[in-house]
Design goal:
Blueprint (H helix, E strand, L loop, with lengths): L1 E10 L2 E11 L3 E6 L6 H8 L7 E6 L2 E2 L5 H7 E4 L11 H7 L2 H4 L5 H13 L15 H14 L4 E5 L7 H14 L9 E5 L3 H7 L2 E6 L2 E6 L1 H4 L2 H8 L4 E5 L2 E5 L3
The structure holds adenosine-5'-diphosphate and magnesium ion.
The site of adenosine-5'-diphosphate (ADP) has 11 residues, from β2 and α1.
Length: 255
């Protein structure tokens, strides 16, 4: 479980997060939804310690994020942040290989190479693995970065808008892969926390949904609880209707 306790965050005079207390269940997909500027990226970055905690506490499976040594945290949690600052003359395979760093500390073994090959196959990146990142489309680059996060092979994976730039086919493939990660035959429990803008991906795939607005949690629970017309209309400030498709909500927001 990721437990967030009384987390507040300010940048200059602006309050970005307001006293957030939240439990993210282990094993499964948690979707983080909410309007632009709600604080979703800030929350993920604080959990992953890309940004230092100012007030409050975060624990990942009992590890205090503020106090855990970096190498320990990197074996527990991976993040693919929203702004993919890219060293562009890097090949896809090498980027994904960076995900293995916490496991080998600069001395990759045959096992690490095999792990990279496995992820490349899983994410259908075989044809692109020797290409430079600056020779890829936005969506291809996005898939390579997510694959790097998966290669880190952590119990927790945080993904900030991983569906950005992906076409329907690749978005579905990515969601299916992520879903499979959280439901392995070995019984290993892996948790994925992802920021999603297209609510219907959350509706179709998420086990748990957290809605953030203006730096505060406005709803948290299963898809059926959170993805209702009233909650979503209030969250985004527009009329949103919710239908039912199979046993999942289907969010209608184009009308
Ligand atoms: N480095 C920064 N300096 C100033 N304001 C920032 C900075 N990063 C984020 N913010 C502000 O914090 C708020 C939350 O941002 P963010 O967490 O990126 O939101 P979201 O990911 O939900 O769109 C926004 O109002 C944004 O403008
Ligand atoms: Mg963001």
């Amino acid at each position: 479980m990721i437990s967030v306790r009384n987390l507040s965050h300010r940048i200059g005079d602006a309050t970005i997060l307001r006293d957030i207390t939240l439990d993210l269940p282990e094993g499964g997909i948690t979707a983080l939804i909410g309007p632009n500027g709600a604080g979703k990226s800030t929350l993920l970055n604080l959990i992953a310690r890309l940004v230092p905690i100012q007030r409050g506490a975060i624990a990942v499976d009992g590890l205090d994020v503020a106090a855990t040594p970096s190498h320990r945290l990197a074996l527990k949690l991976a993040i693919v942040a929203q702004q993919l600052g890219v060293a562009s003359r890097l090949r896809v395979r090498d980027l994904i290989g960076f995900g293995r760093w916490p496991h080998h500390n600069g001395r990759p073994t045959a096992g690490d190479a095999a792990a990279v090959s496995r992820v490349i196959a899983d994410f259908a990146l075989g044809d692109l693995q020797h290409r430079f990142l600056d020779e890829l489309s936005g969506g291809q680059k996005q898939r390579a970065f997510v694959a790097m996060g998966v290669a880190q092979d952590t119990d927790w994976l945080l993904l900030d808008e991983p569906l950005n730039n992906l076409d329907m086919f690749h978005a579905r493939v990515l969601m299916a892969r992520i879903h499979a990660l959280t439901r392995q035959a070995s019984g290993r429990r892996r948790g994925v926390v992802m920021v999603v803008h297209d609510i219907n991906y959350a509706a179709a795939w998420a086990d748990h949904i957290v809605a953030l607005r203006d730096g505060a949690v406005v709803a948290s629970g299963g898809p059926v609880t959170v993805l209702t017309g009233p909650v979503l209309s209030d969250l985004f400030g527009m009329e949103i209707r919710v239908a039912q498709m199979a046993d999942r909500p289907l969010v209608l927001h184009h009308l």
